[in-house]
Structures are given as structure tokens and as C-alpha cells.
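Side project, low priority. Logging it here so it doesn't get lost.
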Amino acid sequence: MQDPNADTQWNDQLRRFNIIGEKEEIKTEEERFEIDRAEQLDKKTLDELDELEDEEDERVLQEYRRKRLLELQEKASRSRFGEVIEISAIDYVKEVNQAGTDIWVVLYLYKSGLPICSLIADHLRSLALKYPETKFVKSISTVCIPNYPDKNLPTIFIYCNGELKNSLIGPFAFGGMNCRFEHLEYKLYESGAIETKGKLQKPDDMKTYGVNDAADDFLRSSIRQSMKSANDDDDD
């Protein structure tokens, strides 16, 4: 069989009428070497690139250093949060809607004195430290939204690019006082609010609540909390 990559008039005519495909580009040994070298350099850190300074072309290394620095600067600019910021209604547009391009914002509404709000607040502080690329803000519910009902607390609104992407409203949405750090972490991960290096696995003990199941668990946890508080008072 005739080689379709051979430079012949017959093959040229066959290509002209689309009977055979275009001639495959055969890379030379030098071209293959350059491709392999580029792939290896692309995987190097800044320190590793410095060690290669005497071995490689300075211009090539400078380009790879510039590329790596830009990647680090971009990551640093996105990892600038790391805490839960208290905001008021006046700050809402600036801190939430105008947070920045592709910045995920977790807005937490709470009220002091509610045990479940304290629990969720503790989890969010830890999540803000673990995921500094996500912006975490909080506000007393009625300060941010006048007349916001206590029955809807705690509440989390999740935004990106000024748009509401998801929400968790009321104790049932969190699983009541049984909500662990890993449970809330997975809920935010599902919503896209936090970015992980690999796939985050759903905790084995995390329930998918129906309304009745959630209400039952919440009432049980509330009764236990009340009994504990009563016992503490009796001890005093």
C-alpha cells in the first residue's frame, strides 16, 4: 500500500479531492526534545527553575518564572479573606453584590442567644480559615433585613457575581444541633461556595432530611439542651 504521507503527485491529487487526509506533520528529533523540555519546565517550582539557571536558556527560564509568579499572585489575591466579617445593611451591596468577579460570598444571618446560631457561627469561623478564597460575612438578621423572622434562623445565603446561588434557611436546613463542621462544609461544597483540591466525600452520618425527620431531630436536641441547662441551674 502506498504511503499516504509520501510527497507524490498522486497523493496530492487524492488530497485535492479529499480522498485522503492532509499529510501528517512529522516532528524532528529536535522538535520532540523541545516539547519534552517545555513540559518538564512547566512542572517546575520557582526554586527548581533557579537551580536550572546554568543549564537552560535564560530567556526561556525568565518566561517560566514570569508565568509561575503570575499564578502565585493570582492565588494570593484570591486567598485574601480568612475570617468572618461583620456587616450592616449599608455594607451589603459593597461586601456581597460587589465582592468581585468569581468571588463566592457566604452571608450568615444570626441572632445572639440562639444555641444553634452559636454552633453555626463556630463552624463558619473554622471554614473561613480553611477556605480563604471564599468570602464569609455575617450580620444580625434584623440589622440586615428588617423584621426577618427568628424562625428562619440560622440562615445562610450563598452568592457569586452578585447572584444568589443557594440558601440554607432555618434549623432544619442545617440538621439542628447535630450539625457538625463536616456537614456544613459539605453543604457549602455542594453549592460551589468552597473549592477543594479533590472531591469532597459526603460524611457517612450526614442525613438527607425530610421536614418531619428534621423537625423531630431538632426537637429532641432542643429538649436535651433545655434539660442540660436546667441541670446546670440546679447544680448552682
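Brief comment: The longest strand covers residues 104-110.
Revisit when time allows.
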